[in-house]
């Protein structure tokens, strides 16, 4: 590592060495000058290594700065270097680096809180080699090395493609222009790989990661403070494309055929439809695990669908299954069936209404007879409602329709009265199925 600022500090210390050392260096003895030069080189290397070791420990120090009270005072050859958290991993790392340069470190634990005025900034701002993860050529965050930056981006891709369907071919890339560049930045701006992954996936955790106050990602979040959803989304977007082959169902079509023998509005299925099947090769596109497109690359029909055939009624003169009352008054004065102790059979039902009450067709149909009936019904209307059903309206005072006329449900066909064999004004309503009188209450 190249610690530019640290080396300058070491050189400045050497330039202000003790007077006796400076005087010795001024003596003209060549051997002494050679020894002094060697000594100066060793001191320069030792001083540089001390700075390197201490700053190397700062990586871990920053991760523990808010959660460690027990500290270590670190010395090199009796000279105080600084404070680090009393953490085994941190101290082991420092000793391992020091041993590689034959430098002896001494550490003495102190059990007190670190003063709030301790100059952490001087340590945290020391420049060190790092790697910037960039978006559109602008740094987003810094991590420990180019190798770690590649690992961070790979883990982000894996996390944002976990829900993507597997297929024959799969390509994964960032939507943005993402790059990696070697940088030299202050230690406080460098994230460990795990923290870098966490920040890229969950930017809302920005304030939970130490040392990020002036990082590029912090600035990016500050610029989007008015966008509430921004902090909920990953800082990077991953596009995945996968090619899959699927067998799918093909829907059948419904064909309608007009049928004059069916009541208007009614339908009858005469041939059921059957689904077909096809094999499709589809390229599916996902953004952060959510499918955004599906493009069919090829399609092969395995079985053709079979159309469903439905007959649709067009005859307005045939009943549609729903019946209504012929009058607004529903008072029955004589029901259907035997009466007078079984001496007489009543083929319909009498509805008590005053003369002149409007009478309506109880369903669609065709008028068979309209006018006077000599069989005791007086003025009547007989309607063929289709499907073997006939309706009869008797004792009317006035008839509004004629034979052969198509009538619709609810249409006015006449007015009530007391014509024919009637003892008073009423409507005789009768229903016949294939010529036989049946219970009329089932047809109102």
From TrEMBL:
Every G5 domain range: 235-316
Pfam families: G5, Peptidase_M23
Keyword Transport: no
Entry keywords, A to Z: Hydrolase, Membrane, Signal, Transmembrane, Transmembrane helix
Enzyme class: hydrolase
This enzyme's EC code(s): 3.4.24.-
Membrane-traversing stretches: 43-62
CDD domains on file: M23_peptidase (cd12797)
Hydrolase as UniProt keyword: yes
InterPro entries found in the cross-reference section: Cell_wall_metabolism_enzyme (IPR050570), Dup_hybrid_motif (IPR011055), G5_dom (IPR011098), M23ase_b-sheet_dom (IPR016047)
PROSITE patterns to which the protein is assigned, alphabetical: G5
Single annotated GO MF: hydrolase activity
PANTHER family: LIPOPROTEIN NLPD, PEPTIDASE-RELATED
Annotated protein name in UniProt: M23 family metallopeptidase
Lineage: Bacteria, Bacillati, Bacillota, Bacilli, Bacillales
């Amino acid at each position: 590592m190249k610690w530019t600022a640290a080396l300058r500090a070491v050189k400045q210390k050497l330039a202000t060495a003790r007077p006796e050392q400076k005087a010795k260096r001024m003596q003209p003895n060549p051997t002494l000058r050679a020894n002094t030069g060697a000594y100066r080189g060793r001191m320069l290397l030792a001083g540089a290594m001390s700075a390197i070791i201490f700053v190397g420990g700062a990586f871990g120090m920053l991760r523990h700065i808010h959660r460690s009270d027990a500290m270590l005072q670190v010395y090199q050859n009796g000279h105080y270097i600084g404070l680090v958290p009393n953490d085994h991993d941190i101290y082991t790392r420092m000793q391992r680096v020091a041993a590689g340069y034959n430098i002896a470190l001494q550490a003495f634990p102190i059990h007190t809180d670190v003063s709030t005025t301790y100059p952490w900034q001087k340590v945290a701002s020391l420049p060190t080699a790092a790697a910037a993860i960039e978006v559109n050529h602008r740094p987003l965050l810094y991590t420990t090395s180019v190798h770690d930056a590649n690992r961070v981006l790979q883990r982000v891709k894996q996390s944002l493609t976990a829900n993507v369907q597997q297929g024959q071919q799969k390509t994964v890339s960032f939507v943005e222009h993402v790059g990696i560049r070697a940088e030299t930045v202050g230690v406080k701006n460098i994230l460990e790989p795990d923290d870098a992954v966490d920040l890229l996936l969950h930017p809302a955790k920005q304030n939970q990661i130490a040392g990020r106050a002036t990082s590029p990602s912090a600035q990016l979040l500050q610029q989007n403070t008015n966008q509430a959803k921004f902090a909920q989304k990953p800082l990077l977007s991953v596009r995945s494309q996968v090619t899959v082959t699927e067998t799918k169902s093909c829907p059948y079509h419904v064909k309608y055929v007009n049928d004059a023998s069916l009541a208007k509005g009614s339908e009858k299925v005469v041939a059921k439809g059957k689904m077909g099947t096809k094999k499709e090769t589809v390229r599916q596109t996902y953004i952060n695990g959510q499918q955004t497109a599906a493009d069919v690359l090829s399609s092969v029909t395995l079985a053709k669908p079979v159309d469903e055939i439905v007959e649709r009624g067009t005859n307005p003169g045939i009943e549609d299954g729903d019946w209504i009352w012929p009058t607004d008054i529903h008072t029955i004065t004589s029901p259907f069936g035997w009466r007078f102790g079984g001496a007489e059979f009543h083929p319909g039902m009498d509805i008590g209404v005053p003369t002149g009450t409007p009478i309506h067709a109880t369903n669609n149909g065709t008028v068979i007879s309209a006018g006077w009936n000599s069989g005791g019904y007086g003025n009547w209307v007989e309607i063929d409602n289709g499907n073997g059903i006939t309706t009869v309206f008797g004792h009317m005072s006035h008839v509004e329709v004629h034979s052969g006329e198509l009538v619709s449900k609810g249409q006015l066909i006449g007015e009530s009265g007391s014509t024919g064999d009637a003892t008073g004004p009423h409507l005789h309503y009768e229903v016949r199925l294939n010529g036989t009188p049946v219970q009329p209450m089932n047809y109102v």
